[in-house]
Amino acid sequence: MVPSGFTVLFSGGWLLAAGFVAAGPYSAALDDPANPHDAPVPGFIGRHGIGKARLQSGVDENGNPVFQNPDNYVNPLFFAWAGSVVDYSRADGDLSFSDPSRALGEVTGDNFDVVSLGDLTAGRIAAGNAAGSITLELARPVRNLSGADFVVFENGLVARSNTGGAGSGGILAELAYVEVSSNGLDFVRFPATSLTPSAVGGYGSISATNVLNLAGKHVNSYATSWGTPFDLAQVGLQEVTHIRLVDIPGDGSFKDRAGSSIYDAWLTFGRVRTVHLNAVIYGWSTNGSLGIIIWLLPRLLRTRLHGALWTMLGGTLINVGVAAGIGAVAIGWTDGMEYLEIPWQIGIFIAVGFVMVIVTVLFTLVNRKVEHLYVSVWYFVAALLWIALLYVVGKLPGVHYGVQQATTNWWFGHNALGLWFTPVAVGAIYYFLPKIIGRPIKSYNLSLLGFWTLAFFYGQVGGHHL
Question: Looking at the structure, do residues 170 and 311 belong to the same domain, yes or no?
Fold first, then answer.
C-alpha cells in the first residue's frame, strides 16, 4: 500500500527526540533518531509527541470533527510533496485502494488513506509478471544536499501479537524498491539491503533493523507517522525530478543488492487445506454425484444410457482436470478464489467434461421410454446444468475484479453446495427412501414445489459468506 504523502521532499537536517537505538545495524521502525544509517523522520511534531499524527477520529455531538493529537502539525522540515502521478501499474486486477492520487499531498498517518500496488501470486511470479509500481513527478526537484534528501511514508504498522516472523513488536511491512530519475526516463534504484533470514508467513512481521533503503520499513498508521529517508549521494545523482516505487512480493523471489532474498508479510495461504478442499469437492463429492446420476437416470427413464463412451470420456476429462488442478495448487499456481483455486487454464478440461456428460444425459432424456418424469430426474438434470453454468461463469478469466470478484466467488461457493450437491442428494433420497421403507412419496406436487423453490430462491443468495 502507498499512503497519502507517499513521497515528500526534505530540506536537510534532523529533529532529535528521546528514543532508543535498535540492537540491529539499521534503524528501528519508529523513533530511532541516533541511528547512523537511516534514522526515521517524524511526519508530525507538536506538544502531543513527536511522530504523533493529527488524525480525525470522529465527530462530536454538534457534527464538528474530533482529532487525535489535535495540536500536532506536519513536520516543517518538509518543503514540498509529490505533485503528480506519471504512471500507476497495479500487479493484479483488484480495484480496492486503486486511486493513485492518494499518493499525493501531505502525509496523514492514516493507514486507510492509501493506494495499493497489488500483489503477485506464486504463479504470476513464476510467469515473470511485473510487480506493481507507481511513478511520481515531484512538485519541486530534489537536490543532493547533506544527509537525507527525501522521505517516503508507507503504511507499515507495529504487530501487536505474535503472528510469525519477528513476532510482537515487529513491523507488518509491505516493502518496495525506490528508484529516482532526473529526466523521468532513466531510473536508478537505491541499493537495498535485507537481512531477514527467512519467510515470515502471511501475516508475519519483520525487524526494521534488518532493512535498509526499502520503502515501508517505518510505521505510518493509526496516527503514528514515521518516514524512511533516502540520500541521493547513494545513487550518484545531484538532482531528481521523479521517484518510482516498485512493490516487492515478500516470498523471497525478489533480491537486494547482495542477491539476498527480501521477505515481508506475503499474503499467501497454506496449500494443504486448499488441496484437501479441492480433492474433496471435485475429486470425491463431484465424482460421487456423477456416479449417482449416471447410475440412476437409466433406471428412472427405463432407457439405456445413450453415448456412454462420451460419458466416460467426459468423466475422464473431469478427473484429469482435477488431478492437474490439485497439482497446480500444490506448487502455488492458483486463481486465488476459494472453491475456484484450480487455474482456469486447467479448469477448461473440467468444464468440457461436464458438457460432455450433460450432452449424453440430455440425449438419453429426449429418447426415454417413459412419459412421466419422476422428481429425482428433475433434480439430477437440473444439477448438471447448474454446475456447468456455475463453473464456467465463475472461472471466466479477466472478467471478475474487486467487489465483483468477491461476489462471484461466493455466488459460486454458495451455489456449488446448494445447486449441485444438494439437488443430487435430494434426488437420491427421493429414489432410495421409498424403496427402503416400501412406501411411495406422499405428495408428488409438494416434491416439485420443493424443486422449484430451490431453483428460484437458493441461487440469488450467497452474500452472507463475504
Answer: no
Mean pLDDT of 148-156: 93
pTM above 0.85? Answer: no
How far apart, in Å, are the Cα atoms of 78 and each of 40, 148, 237? 14, 12, 20
Residue 97's pLDDT band (cuts 50, 70, 90): confident
Q: Name every residue whose Cβ is closer than 8 Å to that of residue 6 and which is 6 or more positions away in sequence.
A: 82, 103, 104, 115, 134, 136, 152, 153, 154, 215, 245
What single-letter amino acid sits at 369?
K
Beta strands in 213-357 (DSSP E): 220-221, 224-230, 239-247, 251-255, 261-263
User: What's the mean pLDDT in 134-157?
Assistant: 93
Contact present, 177 and 189 (Cβ < 8 Å): yes
Q: Which residue in 381, 278, 257 sits closest to 322, CA to CA?
A: 278
Number of domains in the chain: 2
Residue 66 Cα to chain centre, angstroms: 33
Residues 238 and 311 in one domain: no
229, 263, 297 - which closes a domain: 263
User: Are both 116 and 155 inside the same structural domain?
Assistant: yes
pLDDT > 90: percent of the chain: 66
Indicate whether 199 and 342 sit together in one domain: no
Task: Give me the percent of the chain exceeding a pLDDT of 70.
Answer: 92
CA 224 to chain centre: 26
The domain in which residue 379 lies consists of 272-465
| pLDDT of 62 | 85
| Torsion angle of the four alpha carbons 24, 25, 26, 28, in this order, in degrees rounded to the nearest 10 | 20
Which of 219, 171, 209, 215 has its CA nearest to residue 82?
215
- d(C-alpha 98, C-alpha 114), whole Å: 8
> Quick one: pLDDT band at residue 6, thresholds 50, 70, 90?
very low
Rounded-to-integer distance, Cα 174 and Cα 266, Å: 8
Across 224-237, average pLDDT: 95
